[in-house]
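I hope you will forgive my troubling you with a question about protein structure. I should value your view on which stretches of the chain appear to form regular backbone elements. Here, with my thanks, is the record as I have it:
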Amino acid sequence: DACARPRQKSRAKLSHSSLNYTPLVDLLFGDGGQSTLIPFLESVDAADMDALAKPVIRSAISNEADQGLLLGLIEREVAQTLSEGTLFRRNSPATKLCSAYAKE
């Protein structure tokens, strides 16, 4: 138990710290992710997107930016799709993040 106490204190110290992530959150989600997050997600390999989708969605949900992010991704998916038969059929950020969102 003596070993566990310092860890618990450290966790409590971290959770109550005065770290301010507002500038980062604003940068990533401020405009629905249009200028920073969505272009970044589009540059990620499809295999890596599987691992990245869940934390991105959880971050968006916790910052109340999930709807704006998903709407931006869906709009880009629709704009980039050449045929309606292939809409949401590729391994795009929109399909990966919508799938992760549905599982939350």
